[in-house]
């Protein structure tokens, strides 16, 4: 990581270097709790479950094997080592009310004067870990001297290594976007930056572009509206897009979104349930890494994300946005909100195994695109930035 860790001279934030290292005692406590945690008894449902097909959830067989591997073979220290091979930072971002958000990010900073600031944002149940693969490709392709971008891989407020959200007031994607915009300005990118996001990261990107002048363009790999936008030319939607949207989107809307309604309507309850037991998080999150991906990731990669959530007590802190989307009278999805409409450049990478793969014409791999297809995502981003030019006119 030598050479990539030089923060631009124009930065105004307090930024501290960070190393991910969980104390030995916490790891031992985790293993003790995992060992003592009981698997559910065999039932008709868990013996016939198929998470990939969205049938009944996770299977007894998968949970049994995953628990044994997690307890006896999984190496968290190897994950820490890989994470720490990138420059990690904690930025102290002061909100408008004076509250300070400790915001974790991985940064690959360029030495080029005209480098394009580019921020990658994850969603749920993701984390900054899902972007390590694409950041690895960037550092293999470019040296600090010829890297065309300043690359930021952020942990959103409330997720894993970042603090927040506030304990005494409501907090939503508008608040996330405000913190992210302050982060980018504070890192010296007040003249402009590009935002990339999937899932809640895509919602944040939409709000950024529709709210702040500093965000000059956005790239989505997840963009879902409640209904087809007005003025869409149906003739430009391919037959494959239509079939995939009807199949995947239909399944999500009928049998696949119960988790989101639980997050939105009973966040306190599900927060306590999943904070009490790592095996519970394995089932709740492991299901999504099977159902929402094109090819199920290696078990190590699934466990990386869940283990980070566990050690950082992330789950109860990171589901607050679902109240916007699931509660009656909530603000709804930012991609369908005309409040955030704007004329800034937009790109959308269409992956057929996204949970709701809306047709590309709607603008609005799988769900974890940068995690599943990092090379394709990198190529899409470079093509987008090349097309719009920099600075964006």
From TrEMBL:
**GO MF annotations, alphabetized:** epoxide hydrolase activity
* GO BP of this protein: epoxide metabolic process
Q: Which residues form the active site?
A: 199 (nucleophile), 322 (proton donor), 367 (proton acceptor)
Among Pfam families, the record links this protein to: EHN (PF06441)
Q: What are the protein's UniProt keywords?
A: Hydrolase
Domain Epoxide hydrolase N-terminal: from-to ranges: 16-130
Keyword Methyltransferase present in the record's keywords: the answer is no
User: Does Hydrolase count among this protein's keywords?
Assistant: yes
Q: Which residues form the signal peptide?
A: none
Q: Which family does it belong to?
A: Belongs to the peptidase S33 family.
The molecule here is called Epoxide hydrolase N-terminal domain-containing protein
Tell me the classification of the organism that encodes this protein: Eukaryota, Fungi, Dikarya, Ascomycota, Pezizomycotina
């Amino acid at each position: 990581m030598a050479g990539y860790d030089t923060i631009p001279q124009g930065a105004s934030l307090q930024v501290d270097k960070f190393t991910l290292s969980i104390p030995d005692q916490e790891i031992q406590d985790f293993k003790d709790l995992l060992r003592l945690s009981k698997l559910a008894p065999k039932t008709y449902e868990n013996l016939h479950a198929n998470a990939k097909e969205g049938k009944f959830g996770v299977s007894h067989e998968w949970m049994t094997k995953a628990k044994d591997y997690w307890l006896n073979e999984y190496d968290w220290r190897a994950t820490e080592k890989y994470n720490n091979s990138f420059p990690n930072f904690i930025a102290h971002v002061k909100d408008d009310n004076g509250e300070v958000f400790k915001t974790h990010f991985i940064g690959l900073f360029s030495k080029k004067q005209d480098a394009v600031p580019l921020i990658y944002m994850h969603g749920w149940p993701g984390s900054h870990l899902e972007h390590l693969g694409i950041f690895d490709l960037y550092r293999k392709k470019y040296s600090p001297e010829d890297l065309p971008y300043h690359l930021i891989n952020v942990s959103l407020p409330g997720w894993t290594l970042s603090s927040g959200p506030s304990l005494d007031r409501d907090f939503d994607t508008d608040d996330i976007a405000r913190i992210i915009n302050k982060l980018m300005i504070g890192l010296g990118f007040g003249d402009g930056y590009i935002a990339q996001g999937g899932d809640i990261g895509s919602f944040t990107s939409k709000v950024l572009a529709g709210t702040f002048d500093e965000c000059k363009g956005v790239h989505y790999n997840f963009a879902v509206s409640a209904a087809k936008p007005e003025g869409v030319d149906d003739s430009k939607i391919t037959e494959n897009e239509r079939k995939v949207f009807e199949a995947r989107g239909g399944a999500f809307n009928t049998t696949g979104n119960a988790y989101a309604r639980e997050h939105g309507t009973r966040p306190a309850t599900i927060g306590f349930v999943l904070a009490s037991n790592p095996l519970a998080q394995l089932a709740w999150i492991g299901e999504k890494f099977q159902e929402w991906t094109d090819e199920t990731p290696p078990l190590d990669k699934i466990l990386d994300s869940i283990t980070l959530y566990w050690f950082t007590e992330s789950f109860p802190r990171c589901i607050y946005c679902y109240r916007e989307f699931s509660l009656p009278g909530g603000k709804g999805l930012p991609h369908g909100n005309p409040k955030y409409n704007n004329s800034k450049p937009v790109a959308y990478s269409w992956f057929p195994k996204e949970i709701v793969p809306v047709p590309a014409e709607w603008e609005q791999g799988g769900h974890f695109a940068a995690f599943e297809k990092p090379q394709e995502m990198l190529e899409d981003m470079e093509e987008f930035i090349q097309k719009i030019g920099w600075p964006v006119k």
